[in-house]
């Protein structure tokens, strides 16, 4: 795509923050393509869009004050679903499913009255056209339920009740079978899940649900059940160490037929939110997005062939792929490259056949102005190799350069390589950036993820420090101007790094975890068992929680810190940040605090994102001035 003319020198912040609208959760229904469009220029509002056929002008189905958002498990996702005539979306204000027609212009109508809702939350639905109902997740204080709601409106009918967690339900093309995932505390869905299946009765009830995979006797993480047009059921399993597609073969001795991807590739992701998709059936083709050593690619194979059928890579100039969806005649996904922001990608039948949408992904930078990341492998804190992406500063900038280290969130997340204008903002100002896939990150297999078990606050910190030390030894980085920043779990890594590793000279924390013991007791339901493996069982390992908590180690923190916290955060309560700041100020440490009244966990507004970047730059200019 053509880039606008950008003057030499530091990038203007208007080119970086809150410029472009973005696409989320694209969904194909026949020729019709729907997506959720997030608009920073409208305060972060997310609207539902429809393109009725390829090349047609998109239509806004939820104009005005409507905004799609789910708060299930606090992280949300699963914003909408659709059939050929209507869509059902979750309204961000009421939290209720609403229906809206695709062909006519009409106001959205709720499927359930607010008075009946109480404190329940809905997400991750599908439309059962045959029975004219919505099937999805209903969360309450007691847990998740799989429920149905009449499309004409009415009370929820519970199909499967009071599970710890469930979702990702898929209906067979014939409409007589339902499959879904369940998982139980203390496990997270990328650690242990179960695949369930059932015939449906005449009234739509489940007829003797059966567990097909997973459980205590078959521990594995399962990702994205999928039905093909011929009623084959697929799912991705990491039983063999990497998420790879499996096909259910009822009646066979093996039961599950593996469809292994090339060595080192995996097609799953940590299911923090609903709506993630890496597999899609496009007619008789199976498409898969696969990650190997932190970079994504697209693969295809025949659905008719047996498991030994080789996969064929579809050559694309993109390294970051997600949100794959397909129908019998059309396939799309989200894609980004090292010089290309995230766009909506139309995928053709032949390798190398693709077209990027002009609506998304316009870059303000010519490729010549972009710092391209290179893969950096270091000896990790446990002796095993760890990977990072290093972005060198512009060629005309002096060496050695100041360095910004980023610890991703999760901590079971990953450093991605699609064009980040925020990174290029720093690079244009003479900084280098390193984004670390410390032990525990996704994209390198199950064993790599499990390296962080029991070592959060140690291994992630050591891996970040190892990346810095290697860059310093290579003469790339000024050892006196090394900063680290991160949000949520990345904020915890930032604080721990400033406490334990003298190579870090300053840090910026967005909604950081400061007190592990307090958060373990107060955290929301979804993550309530997560710390059992990241730190250790509570309360047996209570001493370790105190030892790892930045708040309990405040006396060892002697570096300047900027804290940025949303006051509506339910994942990491604002009290964590406020107590940490108060304790550090009492010690006379240079600490800055920005509180954002309307923001929750993660900052959606373009204006707020701009404020955060400007504040971060001012902070680093003050505490790490040029030498």
Strand content range:
35-45%
So, the CATH homologous superfamily of the domain at 367-530 and 557-623? Alpha/Beta hydrolase fold, catalytic domain
Look at the helices and sheets and give the structural class.
alpha+beta
Based on CA atoms alone, the radius of gyration comes out at 24 Å
Mean residue pLDDT: 93
Helix content: 10-25%
CATH-scheme architecture of the domain at 367-530 and 557-623: 3-Layer(aba) Sandwich
CATH topology (fold) name of the domain at 367-530 and 557-623: Rossmann fold
- Poorly predicted residue ranges: none
Shape: globular
Strand order of the largest sheet: 29-30-32-31-33-34-35-36
Q: Terminal Cα separation, in Å?
A: 39 Å
Biggest beta sheet summary:
8 strands, mixed
DSSP E strands, number: 36
Quickly count the helices.
10
CATH C-level category of the domain at 367-530 and 557-623: Alpha Beta
Task: Tell me about this structure.
With 627 residues, this protein is α+β, with helices and mostly antiparallel strands. The protein has a domain of 231 residues: Rossmann fold (3-Layer(aba) Sandwich), CATH 3.40.50. The strands form 8 sheets. The chain has an 8-stranded mixed β-sheet with strand order 29-30-32-31-33-34-35-36, with helices on both faces. It has a 4-stranded antiparallel β-sheet with strand order 1-2-3-4, with no helix packed on it. Helix 4 crosses helix 5. The longest helix has 18 residues. It starts with 21 loop residues before the first strand and ends with a helix. The model has no long low-confidence stretch (mean pLDDT 93).
């Amino acid at each position: 795509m053509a880039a606008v003319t950008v003057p030499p020198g530091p990038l203007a912040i208007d080119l970086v923050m809150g410029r472009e609208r973005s696409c989320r959760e694209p969904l194909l229904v026949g020729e019709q393509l729907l997506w959720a469009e997030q608009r920073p220029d409208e305060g972060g509002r997310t609207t539902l869009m429809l393109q009725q056929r390829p090349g047609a002008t998109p239509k806004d189905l939820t104009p005005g004050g409507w905004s799609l958002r789910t708060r299930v498990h606090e992280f949300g996702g699963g914003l909408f679903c659709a059939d050929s005539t209507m869509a059902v979306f979750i309204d961000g204000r009421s939290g209720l499913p609403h229906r809206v027609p695709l062909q006519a212009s009409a106001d959205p109508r709720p499927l359930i009255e607010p008075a009946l809702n109480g404190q329940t939350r809905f997400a991750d639905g599908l439309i059962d056209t045959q029975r004219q109902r919505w099937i999805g997740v209903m969360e309450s204080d007691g847990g998740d339920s799989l429920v149905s709601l009449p499309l004409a409106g009415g009370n929820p009918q519970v199909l499967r009740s009071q599970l710890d967690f469930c979702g990702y339900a898929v209906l067979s093309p014939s409409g007589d079978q339902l499959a879904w995932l369940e998982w139980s505390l203390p496990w997270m869905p990328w650690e242990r899940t179960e695949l369930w299946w059932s015939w449906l009765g005449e009234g739509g009830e489940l007829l003797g649900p059966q567990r097909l995979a997973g459980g205590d006797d078959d521990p594995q993480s399962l990702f994205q059940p999928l039905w093909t047009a011929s009623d084959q059921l697929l799912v991705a399993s990491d039983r063999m160490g990497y998420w790879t597609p499996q096909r259910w073969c009822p009646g066979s001795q093996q039961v599950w037929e593996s469809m292994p991807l090339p060595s080192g590739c995996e097609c799953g992701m940590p299911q923090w939110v609903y709506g993630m998709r890496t597999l899609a059936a496009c007619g008789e083709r199976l498409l898969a997005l696969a990650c190997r050593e932190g970079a994504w690619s697209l693969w295809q194979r025949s659905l008719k062939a047996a498991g030994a059928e080789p996969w064929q890579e579809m050559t694309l100039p993109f390294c970051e792929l997600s949100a794959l969806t397909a129908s019998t005649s059309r396939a799309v996904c989200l894609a980004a490259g090292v010089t290309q922001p995230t766009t909506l990608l139309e995928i053709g039948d032949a390798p190398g056949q693709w077209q990027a949408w002009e609506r998304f992904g316009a870059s303000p930078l010519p490729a010549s102005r972009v710092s391209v990341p290179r893969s950096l492998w270091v000896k990790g804190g446990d002796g095993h190799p760890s990977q990072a992406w290093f972005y060198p500063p512009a060629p005309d900038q002096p060496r050695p350069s100041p360095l910004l280290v980023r610890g991703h969130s999760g901590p079971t997340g990953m450093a991605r390589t699609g064009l980040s204008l925020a990174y290029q903002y720093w690079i244009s100002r003479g900084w280098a950036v390193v984004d670390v896939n410390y032990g525990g990150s996704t994209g390198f297999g199950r064993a790599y993820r499990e390296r962080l078990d029991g070592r959060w606050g140690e291994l992630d910190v050591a891996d970040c420090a190892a990346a810095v030390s290697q860059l310093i030894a290579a003469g790339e980085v000024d050892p006196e101007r090394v900063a680290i920043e991160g949000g949520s779990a990345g904020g915890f890594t930032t604080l721990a790094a400033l406490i334990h590793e003298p190579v870090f000279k300053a840090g910026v924390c967005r909604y950081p975890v400061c007190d592990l013991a307090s958060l373990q007791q107060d955290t929301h339901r979804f993550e309530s068992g997560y710390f059992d493996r990241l730190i250790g069982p509570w309360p047996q390992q209570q001493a370790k929680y105190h030892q790892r908590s930045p708040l309990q180690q405040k006396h060892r923190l002697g570096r300047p810190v900027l804290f940025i916290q949303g006051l509506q955060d339910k994942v990491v309560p604002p009290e964590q940040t406020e107590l940490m700041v108060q304790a550090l100020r009492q010690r006379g440490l240079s600490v800055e605090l920005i509180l954002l009244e309307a923001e929750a966990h993660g900052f959606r507004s373009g204006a707020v994102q701009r404020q955060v970047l400007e504040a971060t730059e001012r902070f680093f200019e003050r505490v790490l001035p040029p030498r």
